[in-house]
Amino acid sequence: MSNKQPNRIPSAAQVVELPPQRLAEPADPCAMVIFGATGDLTKRLVMPALYNLSHTKVLPEQFVLIGVARAAGTAESWRDHLYDTLKTYVGNGATEFDVASIDEAAWKRLAERMVYVQGDLTKPELYEKLRDALGEAEKNHGTKGNAIFYLAVADQLFGTVVEQLGKTKLTDQNDQNGKDRFWRRVVIEKPFGHSLASARQLNARVQRTLHEDQIFRIDHFLGKDTVQSIMAFRFANGLFEPIWNRDRIDHVQITAAETVGVEQRGDFYEATGALRDMVPNHLFTLLSMVAMEPPTSFDAASIRTKKAEVLAAIPAVKPVHAVRGQYGAGKMLGESVKAYRQEANVAPDSNVETFVAMQLEIDNWRWAGVPFYVRTGKHMSRRMTEIAIRFKQAPYTAFQDTAVDALRPNWLVLRIAPDEGISLEFEVKRPGPIVDLAAVKMDFRYDDWFAKEPNVGYETLLYDVMIGDPTLFMRADMVEQTWRIVQPVLDSWAEDRAAETPIYQAGSSGPSKAEALLERDGRRWRPVDGSTDGKPS
């Protein structure tokens, strides 16, 4: 979505020049209301994303930002607070940012249109004040009545806020003649439910007030360019799609490993755990994009339908095919770190998992018999998110009378973060008089080919809400399918409260039982630390 022209390819490989980049048009005029305007999510992600949209000039000129929170304050104090935190959080997860590098004109365009409304989110009076603020935005800044309501609040308040918006008619989109006069959209953060039953209840509750096309269930994983490029990689290249099936693929591994612990979110993690936090949303998002059938067109309805079909074809996971773990004390990046049970707001005898791995199957013609293994964990040896596709072994008989004693597998690896790119690992013959094979890797890195823009992962998603494109957002049926798949595991772990969660050392690749999950089928996880990732041998 950047309006910068991309770099040319590296001089070492100048054989093709990239075509000019298509530029994003400014979004529709609108007001954006952030419930939870003084919270952590707003300062870390939402506000830096809006600033980046302003910097790249795709934020509409007719735009107003309305902050809503319980804390007393003014537009000026809210604006000053966010400007100070912008220095820290703008850019690609930067911990330090030179204030001189901030585009002051881009910030000014935002700051001049910021309004603050204080009140209790459960009280009708707040929504009356909000209606007045939206009226002023339309009158003074030409927002045309369009509004986004962003729920950056605790999930217990999702239903309450939506119902209050409905009672005040702030979600209505029609005039007295029944014609669309403007649009109103609601963005809901995760977690969207904590189980299949709660997800169904929340869907039913918000759908009593909103039409499905007004609901944007956001998952920041889908804001990453490398996630969105999975479909382009598959469907825009005739080379890969013909081998993207059970005839050629042995299995798929999806990993989201983090080096950080729970930090200051001990209370959240005690109520959630790694499975609820990462699997139904982030990991299943990646799985559905890898496994979906080609859509009839690249419109939102077609793409989301194909993703939903994949999720519907996944049987519920049996508890025997799921492994959990919890990090103990260890070393991270040379520093000693404490165990999960020693973190703030964590019970000293907690059995909550900080690691989960599971095996899934997809019962359709393309994937029958191909296992998908997913894992995620905190305080692991390296930060990485990747999709690794293992192809079936070549016949060994052709090499039986040679010095070759093993054929290493072919891997196609889609690296989502942090070193975004795609690599293909395969065998070649070493130079010399005898047949001797070596594993090599062809490697594409996004940074080598494209200009890198400051991005926190929310820019594309917020822009899509403004233009009304729901492609990257979950439908109600998709949300319920993800919870259906993991519900037996959640039930089993809840019933077996006395069982001790296996402890893995911080800085490792997780508990040994996760390795056993694959070893019983004669397979192994790719090392998280990248120690044997296809480098020349």
Topology:
Elements: E1 30-35, H1 40-55, E2 63-69, H2 75-89, H3 104-111, E3 114-118, H4 124-141, E4 147-151, H5 158-167, E5 184-188, H6 196-207, E6 215-217, H7 225-235, E7 249-257, H8 266-291, H9 300-312, E8 322-328, E9 330-332, E10 335-337, E11 355-360, E12 372-377, E13 384-391, E14 411-417, E15 421-429, E16 437-445, H10 446-449, H11 459-467, H12 476-495, E17 503-505, H13 512-519
Parallel strand pairs: 1-2, 1-4, 2-3, 4-5, 5-6, 7-12, 8-17
Antiparallel strand pairs: 7-13, 8-11, 9-10, 11-12, 13-14, 14-15, 15-16
Task: Record keyword descriptors for this entry.
six-stranded parallel β-sheet; Dihydrodipicolinate Reductase, domain 2; nine-stranded mixed β-sheet; 2 domains; 537 residues; globular; disordered N terminus; single chain; 13 helices; Rossmann fold; alpha/beta
Question: What do you see in this structure?
Answer:
With 537 residues, this protein is α/β, with parallel strands linked by helices. It folds into two domains: 209 residues, Rossmann fold (3-Layer(aba) Sandwich); 228 residues, Dihydrodipicolinate Reductase, domain 2, CATH 3.30.360. It contains 13 helices and 17 strands. The strands form three sheets. Strands 16-15-14-13-7-12-11-8-17 form a nine-stranded mixed beta sheet, sandwiched between helices. Strand 14 and strand 15 form a beta hairpin. The longest helix has 26 residues. The chain is globular. The two termini are 40 Å apart. The N terminus and C terminus are likely disordered.
